[in-house]
Amino acid sequence: MHPGSRSLILLILVIFAGIVVPFVIWGAQFDAALSLEGARQWMAGYGAWAWAAGIVLLIADIVLPVPSTVVMSALGWMYGWWLGGLICAAGSMLSGIIAYAGCRWLGRGAALWIAGEAGLRRGEEIFEKRGGWLVALSRWMPVLPEAVACLAGLSRMRWRVFLPALVCGSVPTGFAFAAIGHVGQSEPGWAMALSCIMPVLLWLGAARVLRR
Predict the structure, then answer these.
(1) For residues 134-166, b (16+ Cβ closer than 10 Å) or e, as one string?
(2) Is the pTM value of this prediction over 0.85?
(3) Segment 68-124, tens digit of pLDDT
(4) CB-based contacts of 13: which residues, under 8 Å, 6+ apart?
(5) What is the helix (H) or strand (E) element at residue 6, kind and residue range?
(6) Which domain covers residue 128, as residue numbers?
């Protein structure tokens, strides 16, 4: 095993525990309160600021078991696939940026204590080689978006690579789930397929530009 891999695995497990434990404790309550109709009604209670309330929910998913895909679908239901998609993409990107920045500048000390220098160096090597793919593809998966963004920050992934990868993952995912909400969830398969394929295609183009 590569030097530092065991320590890095321990760090990953700690991050996943921090994300999964709230789901175990409060996940059922959040799912009940934030059903598609429940999320729409909660955001609609803020009137003209409903879109901002939706973005706050997507950002809160960093630390709380918010069903982000349901929130995105509710935003698509309220605002349509185009405007709703923009709001969803913005919320997803802000969530990723906050998780990345918080872990990069505030969590480094704790990460060193858990994984040590060797573990963090191993993380830096992985995110230097494959970080763009990890960030882009994680945005349409459950749990992984927050964990990968945190690991990217702890590994000090280069900002100029992290941000384009985040955009490549967040934009198609946001528009796909907004479209699901807009069409009444009648064709979720197409939207899910799009959200899986588009991050790959977008990152292939972005990676080529970044290499140049």
Answers:
(1) bbbbbbbeeebbbbbbbbbbbbbbeeebbbbbb
(2) no
(3) 888 998 999 899 989 999 999 999 999 999 999 999 888 777 777 777 788 788 888
(4) none
(5) helix 5-33
(6) 5-211
